[in-house]
Amino acid sequence: MSITVRVPAKVNVQLAVGAPRPDGYHDLANVFLAVGLYDTVTATPADGLRLTVTGPDAAQVPLDGSNLAARAALALAERAGRTADVHLHIAKDIPVAGGMAGGSADAAAALVACDALWGLATPREVLLSICADLGSDVPFSLVGEAALGTGRGEKLEPLEVGGTFHWVFAAADGGLSTPAVYREFDRLCEGREVPAPTASPALLAALREGDPHALAATVDNDLQPAALSLNPALAATLAAGTEAGALAALVSGSGPTTAFLAEDAPAAARIAEALTASGTCRSARVAASPAPGATVVGQDPEPDRDTVPARADQG
Ligand code: ATP
């Protein structure tokens, strides 16, 4: 028996960040949009917890207990009073440390896959609370589509989206650590009053109406100056996408992936081609949004384990 779950990446169309709280976290108004760029996680019974990863960025994914997918499997097993005897195989297509919540996506996918494999039928609210314990972005990876996250981003309210938005995502060389970007945000804000974060009514209306021009006029990422300060080369990528006709160009979450909103699918293809040719990014690819959250896409009663390509194992 094996279960395969597909899970999307995200872009933050608004990321309003408040002042640091006493616990070190920041209050957020975080408008998440799931995009059709996916990892898949396959769970198969095994002796103990095993982890394998394939994909272009696989070498950057930790295979030890810090891997969020492994932590998700352990958290679910502990709650169910059983051992996490599972081989998790991650087919990784979401850029690593790119500001697209790839690790969070794998955690949500692993939870759904293990829940199905172990026949637990864990209530959705319980899965969501395990997700929130694992990280601020993990609950959104479970639900997908579009949502407003408040608190440190983990309190979610679903949002209506009235159409399909077409994006281009440009991967940058190297990654940016999310905590480092928040530290830089705090440094840049020193001595300034940071307003309490609130969702923009105009942006929520643009999503509801499915209007890319209105969305382009309202996208906003408070972490962008911090990401640009740590990786100034991103400014050239943003400029290249704007020159190629993007309606909006922004850093995705904590970066360094950059996101470009296009008028329609053909425009997105043209922008991706121009960005690739510009030499200002590692690669550029199109993706549409919204996209569903972590979903079971395959149940194989008797998989041939040898067909799973493995980079490395964690015993
Ligand atoms: P976010 O957008 O949520 O801030 P991110 O997209 O910037 O996250 P991730 O790809 O989630 O970043 O990776 C952040 C770090 O998490 C990586 O550098 C890696 O060390 C660690 N990590 C743990 N588990 C995973 C996983 N399954 N996939 C990728 N990275 C993981």
TrEMBL record:
Q: Where does ATP bind?
A: P95, V96, A97, G98, G99, M100, A101, G102, G103, S104, A105
Gene Ontology BP terms = isopentenyl diphosphate biosynthetic process, methylerythritol 4-phosphate pathway; terpenoid biosynthetic process
Q: Which SUPFAM superfamilies match?
A: GHMP Kinase, C-terminal domain, Ribosomal protein S5 domain 2-like
Domain GHMP kinase C-terminal spans what residues?
Answer: 203-278
Query: Which GO molecular-function terms appear in the entry?
Result: 4-(cytidine 5'-diphospho)-2-C-methyl-D-erythritol kinase activity; ATP binding
Pathway, per record: Isoprenoid biosynthesis; isopentenyl diphosphate biosynthesis via DXP pathway; isopentenyl diphosphate from 1-deoxy-D-xylulose 5-phosphate: step 3/6
Q: Which InterPro entries does the record cross-reference, listed alphabetically?
A: GHMP_kinase_C_dom, GHMP_kinase_C_sf, GHMP_kinase_N_dom, IspE, Ribosomal_Su5_D2-typ_SF, Ribsml_uS5_D2-typ_fold_subgr
Which catalytic reaction applies to this protein? 4-CDP-2-C-methyl-D-erythritol + ATP = 4-CDP-2-C-methyl-D-erythritol 2-phosphate + ADP + H(+)
Q: Where are the transmembrane segments?
A: none
Q: What is this protein called?
A: 4-diphosphocytidyl-2-C-methyl-D-erythritol kinase
The organism is Streptomyces koyangensis
